[in-house]
């Protein structure tokens, strides 16, 4: 009884405290000027309202339990069954027996139900800076408890302006559809129904200016602040989940001015297959390190052009690549994604070919990860220190080659450089703009690599994927001192660089769909691979192979003079399954296998890519011995013309390899020794 009574008193105090906090915030708001955006205010109010209601409902549940069990009477009277003595409960004298207890409960319920909606309503309609401060304090808890903010955020009438109905509705806890519409209405950024827009033909931008740079400036100058704000932050993610129908990165356009959105997709091994229905609709290309091993710029450009066509066929106009970091840590989990390999001069040649090939298909390239991102383990906390000369001579040449090739965008990395996060480092931004000459494009963040709104002043133009809210307009306004309704100043500069880079790559031309509206069918079911592309992928893979020694064994003869060639395959790696064949691995975004680098660049394919399947498909007489034991393997190869022993290793994003040894290293070493 003492515990129950104490808990009830504590809950009552929490209820009163939550209401008091809300009222204090309201009083403080009277002395703080209101901001332009209603979006954050509604979120703040929602947090306070939920806390108030949660405390109230918890108190009601305990009251029901206490009243029905008779514990309320026992707690105050000290006698089983309650008794008939008048007792003071929250200052109200009632009879604690029978109906008295019920009256206590109903009085409390009526008071709670009356006060909670009143306080929530007041918090909802009165904006305040103290609410924002409170939200910032609660944000880490909200990220865990609510899956972050995010979801699909479409301005009112957005899809109708493109002549399409929205395929996706709802959203995350902070900015769902209704909230976004209200926010844009306040800022003057809503869209009304209009005739469907035609696909933009080449040169459409000339009605805005004589040059693409001039057109970008004119377009942004004619935007409202809310419209410009759409360009500097992505939308759609809720926590780490992405609804079907959205790209890895989605940025809304401005239909009122005829400006489509940006549809971004990974990249390292082809069009990233994030959903099961996409598997088999795109080509699973060799890794970028394979192209580095080919030393072939013309092959790299041919591949990049084909890759750009596949992205366009899927409705994407931005490819989140190429990855170009020069290898520094040999065990780096993403080394296989990096086109430069260990040689910056090789990177210069191949990166230029990649950028030119992709952008020739009207897909904006995003060179990454700038800068000095050379390991995956602790990638978000490692602090890299490299002197200026070494940066310029070893690590920057591939990035500089991308600038010369006209790359549309840079992506800043997770790591710190000289004590500052790369995303938001004014020093790195200055080196990029002034030192490397990057003038016609924008800097986007890696996913969740921005740590504060100050990153905007540190050179980041676009926060991706955007559901952390760092580049919400009210935050950028507070950071830059802007208060006007036109997108000048910081937000305008950021938006103009985004438009300028996309225009330079012709990425807005002839868009086949509009994200959040009608891209779903293309993304999920559209087939962009072809027999020609698969043949190119095979040719590229073959060109990348480095043969260290050959004593007349290769190439294998299918029908030698002595009869059909018999091949023994030794070891588990000869027929290793792909991650696609395991549901658990498919659901782990970072899982890799012997055929695919794990992580954001992963491309699944429906077939069997094992050596066993390949040799059988080629018509060879093959026998598999899948045991990694040298004694058994030695016996198994007797009677065969050729024995092939297999080994493999897995590499993936987010963590480095534990060693450079193959998984079957012990088996292979013993087999060779025998």
- For the biggest β-sheet, the strand order reads 3-4-5-6-8-11
What is the terminal separation in angstroms? 78 Å
Low-confidence stretches: 28-43, 71-98, 139-149, 168-195
Helix content: 40-55%
Largest beta-sheet characterization: 6 strands, mixed
Q: Tell me the total number of β-strands.
A: 14
The radius of gyration is 31 Å
| Shape field | globular
Question: Mean pLDDT, rounded to whole units?
Answer: 81
- The number of distinct helices, counting runs of at least 4 residues, comes to 23
- The proportion of residues in beta strands is 5-15%
Structural class: alpha/beta
Structural overview:
The chain is of the alpha/beta class. It has 23 helices and 14 strands. The protein starts with a helix and ends with a helix. The strands form four sheets. It has a six-stranded mixed sheet with strand order 3-4-5-6-8-11. The model is unreliable at 28-43, 71-98, 139-149 and 168-195 (pLDDT under 50). The protein is globular, with a radius of gyration of 31 Å. A hairpin with a 2-residue loop joins β1 and β2 (92-95).
Please give a quick description of this structure.
The chain has helices at 2-29, 39-69, 71-77, 99-125, 129-145, 158-161, 177-187, 212-221, 225-231, 288-294, 297-313, 344-359, 388-395, 397-404, 426-435, 473-480, 489-504, 520-525, 531-544, 583-587, 611-617, 630-636, 665-673; strands at 86-89, 92-95, 249-251, 262-265, 318-319, 364-370, 383-384, 409-412, 416-417, 420-421, 442-445, 566-570, 621-625, 642-645. The protein has 674 residues and is of the alpha/beta class.
């Amino acid at each position: 009884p003492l515990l129950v009574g104490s808990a009830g008193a504590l809950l009552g105090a929490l209820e009163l405290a939550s209401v008091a906090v809300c009222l204090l915030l309201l009083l403080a708001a009277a002395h703080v000027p209101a901001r332009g955006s209603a979006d954050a205010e509604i979120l703040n109010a929602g947090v306070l309202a939920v806390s108030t209601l949660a405390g109230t409902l918890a108190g009601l549940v305990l009251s029901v339990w206490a009243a029905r069990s008779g514990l309320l009477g026992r707690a105050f009277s000290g006698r089983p069954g309650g008794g008939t003595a008048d007792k003071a409960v929250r200052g109200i004298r009632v009879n604690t027996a029978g109906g008295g207890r019920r009256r206590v409960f109903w009085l409390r319920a009526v008071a709670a139900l009356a006060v909670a909606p009143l306080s929530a309503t007041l918090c909802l309609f009165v904006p305040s800076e103290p609410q924002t401060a409170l939200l910032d304090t609660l944000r880490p808890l909200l990220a865990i408890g609510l899956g972050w903010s995010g979801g699909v955020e479409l301005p009112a009438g957005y899809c109708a302006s493109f002549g399409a109905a929205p395929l996706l509705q709802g959203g995350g806890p902070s900015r769902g559809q209704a909230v976004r519409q209200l926010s844009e209405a306040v800022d003057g950024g809503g869209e009304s129904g209009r005739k469907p827009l035609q696909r933009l033909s080449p040169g459409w931008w000339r009605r805005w200016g004589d040059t693409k740079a001039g057109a970008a400036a004119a377009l942004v100058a004619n935007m409202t602040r809310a419209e410009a704000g759409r360009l500097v932050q992505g939308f759609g993610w809720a926590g780490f989940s992405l609804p079907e129908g959205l790209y890895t990165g989605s940025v809304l356009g401005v239909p009122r001015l005829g400006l489509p959105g940006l549809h971004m997709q990974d990249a390292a091994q082809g069009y990233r297959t994030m959903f099961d229905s996409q598997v088999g609709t795109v080509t699973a290309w060799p890794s970028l390190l394979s192209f580095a091993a080919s030393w072939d710029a013309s092959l790299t450009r041919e591949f990049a052009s084909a890759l750009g066509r596949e992205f366009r066929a899927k409705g994407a106009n931005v490819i989140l690549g190429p990855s170009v970091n020069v290898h520094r840590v040999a065990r780096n989990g993403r080394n296989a994604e990096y086109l430069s390999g260990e040689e910056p001069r090789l990177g210069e040649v191949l990166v230029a070919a990649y950028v030119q090939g992709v952008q020739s298909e009207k897909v904006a390239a995003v060179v990454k990860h700038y800068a000095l991102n050379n390991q995956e383990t602790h990638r978000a906390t490692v602090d890299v220190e490299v002197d200026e000369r070494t940066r310029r001579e070893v690590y920057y040449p591939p990035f500089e080659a991308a600038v010369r090739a006209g790359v549309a965008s840079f992506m800043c990395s997770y790591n710190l450089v000289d004590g500052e996060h790369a995303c938001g480092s004014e020093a790195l931004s200055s080196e990029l703009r002034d030192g490397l000459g990057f003038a016609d494009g924008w800097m986007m963040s890696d996913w969740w690599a921005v740590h504060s709104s100050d990153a905007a002043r540190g050179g980041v133009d676009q926060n991706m994927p955007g559901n952390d809210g760092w580049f919400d307009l009210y935050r950028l306004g507070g950071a830059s001192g802007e208060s006007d309704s036109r997108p000048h100043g910081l937000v305008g500069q950021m938006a103009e660089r985004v438009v300028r880079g996309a225009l330079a790559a012709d990425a807005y031309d002839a868009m086949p769909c509009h994200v959040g509206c009608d891209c779903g069918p293309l993304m999920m079911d559209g087939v962009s691979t072809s027999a020609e592309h698969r043949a190119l992928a095979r040719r590229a893979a073959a060109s990348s192979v480095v043969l260290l020694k050959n004593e007349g064994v290769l190439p294998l003869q299918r029908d030698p003079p002595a009869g059909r060639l018999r091949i023994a395959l030794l070891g588990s790696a000869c027929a290793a399954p792909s991650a696609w064949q395991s549901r658990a691995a498919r659901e782990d975004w970072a899982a890799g296998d012997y055929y695919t680098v794990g992580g954001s660049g992963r491309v699944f394919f429906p077939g069997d890519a094992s050596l066993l399947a390949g040799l059988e498909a080629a018509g060879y007489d093959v026998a598999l011995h899948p045991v990694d034991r040298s004694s058994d393997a030695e016996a198994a190869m007797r009677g065969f013309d050729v024995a092939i022993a297999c080994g493999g290793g897995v590499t993936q994003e987010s963590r480095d390899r534990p060693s450079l040894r193959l998984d079957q290293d012990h088996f292979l070493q013993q087999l060779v020794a025998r």
